Amino acid sequence: MSDHSIRFRLNGAVVERVVPAERLLLDLLRSDLGKTGTKDGCSIGVCGLCTVQVDGAPMSACLLLATQIDGAAITTVEGLASADGPSELQEAFIAEGGFQCGICTSGQLVAAAALLEARPDATAAEVSDWMMGNLCRCTGYYGIARAIASARPR
Amino acid sequence: MRPFEYLEPETLDEALALLAEDPDDTLVLAGGTSLVILMKQELVRPARVIGLRKLAQLRAIRSGDAGLTIGALATHGSLARASDVNAFSPALAATFAAVATVRIREQATVGGNIVHADPSQDPPVTLLALDATAVAMSKARARRIPFDELFVDVFETSLEPDELLLRVELPALPVGARATYKKFLPNTLDDYATVAVAAVVATDADGRCTHARIALGGAGPVPLRAHDAERSLVGRRLDDRSITEAAALAAAATDPIADLRGSARYKRAMAGVWTERALREIA
């Protein structure tokens, strides 16, 4: 019933868009902008599949209205790799077996990248607390934990 | 999600005026972690939503001799990290750090958490034990509501539809007061508590209790104070006998419902067990 003009950064590039009030960030990313790396899982903020960074902080795109991120910098999994190839973290997920089926992987990567940026010296317990909300039903988490540990700056 | 009209006031006066226009068909959006789900599931269907994100003054966290003041829009993450919160009460900082997951803590606000009035939530329990007062305002008036009178029933507070929660005020703690928050999580660490206990005590030079607060979460339709248990401790040393008696009184004060986190009987028993553990930790 109301439309809103929003402007934000998506993986560094400025995006301007008019959205209805009820548009979710998740649908804006996937359906309107074609950024389908962000996955839709539980739709209630529990599973972590739709994790994106909002000004560096991990949040669930399924719980955010698009109007709420007006003015923010959003990072999705598409923003992690550079033109040179996968990031160090992405390479570590490959090397350490940090995924199997892959459905949770973009959320895991975005959450872990936020952690490495915010708390590069996090202890193993802090890593596990931070990653607790990103569910994985394949790996048993050990590969993910190893990947994050090996991608940490030394 | 049903379409609605979204309004984003620039000032508090503007927000209160908008709320006063049609309070019964308007809902307020803070972080959105609860409201967005309720709207997606059509459990609420507001004609209008007022977003508070531009009211930056409601994010402030301030401490002083009089105590600690927390703006309603402060996120759980910012409160868990704030040195002012940790200096006032490490147990309060730990309570905010115990909420759900990092994603929820970064998005959800303390004000949204309080007005949502889910009886299993963490912050209201510790705030209740710390003698918190809510400060609310409508276009017509400002009002102070002690936390004892704030929670009415499951998902229901004593706030009027045209009132906005502005901040939470915590008075300075008695000298030497010790506090703790215990969250009993038998399933997973990001679950709601089966029961939760916040306890605060202070003792005199002889080791006799001069101040006691015990608050319980997940133990009834609202976060509740175990008044009989508190009274039983005052004037006594915090030893095995007084702690065991207080824990039994705290369990008796509960009114839990059976759900997937346990039967009513189990939750009542666990309220006693975790009250005892909390008191032993700070005795």
SSE map:
The complex is a heterodimer of chains A (154) and B (283).
Chain A: E1 3-10, E2 13-20, H1 25-32, E3 51-54, E4 57-60, E5 73-75, H2 88-96, H3 105-118, H4 124-131, H5 142-151
Parallel strand pairs in A: 1-5
Antiparallel strand pairs in A: 1-2, 3-4, 3-5
Chain B: E1 5-7, H1 12-21, E2 26-29, H2 35-40, E3 48-51, E4 61-64, E5 67-71, H3 76-81, H4 83-88, H5 90-97, H6 102-107, H7 110-116, H8 123-129, E6 133-137, E7 142-146, E8 151-153, E9 156-157, E10 164-171, E11 178-184, E12 195-203, E13 209-217, E14 224-225, H9 227-233, H10 240-252, H11 264-282
Parallel strand pairs in B: 1-3, 2-3
Antiparallel strand pairs in B: 4-5, 5-10, 6-7, 6-10, 8-9, 11-12, 12-13, 13-14
Helix pairs in contact in B: 9-10, 10-11
Q: Can you walk through the features of this model?
A:
The complex is a heterodimer of chains A (154) and B (283). Chain A has 2 domains: 3-78, Ubiquitin-like (UB roll), CATH 3.10.20.30; 88-151, DNA polymerase, domain 1 (Orthogonal Bundle), CATH 1.10.150.120. In chain A, 32% of the residues lie in helices and 18% in strands. Chain A is built from 5 helices and 5 strands; from the N terminus they run ββαβββαααα. In chain A, strand 1 and strand 2 (13-20) form a beta hairpin. With 283 residues, chain B is an alpha+beta fold. Chain B has 3 domains: 5-51, Uridine Diphospho-n-acetylenolpyruvylglucosamine Reductase, domain 2 (2-Layer Sandwich); 56-171, Uridine Diphospho-n-acetylenolpyruvylglucosamine Reductase, domain 3; 178-282, CO dehydrogenase flavoprotein, C-terminal domain (Enolase-like, domain 1, 2-Layer Sandwich), CATH 3.30.390.50. Chain B is 34% helix and 25% strand. Chain B starts with a strand and ends with a helix. At the A-B interface, strand 4 of A face strand 1, helix 2 and helix 6 of B.
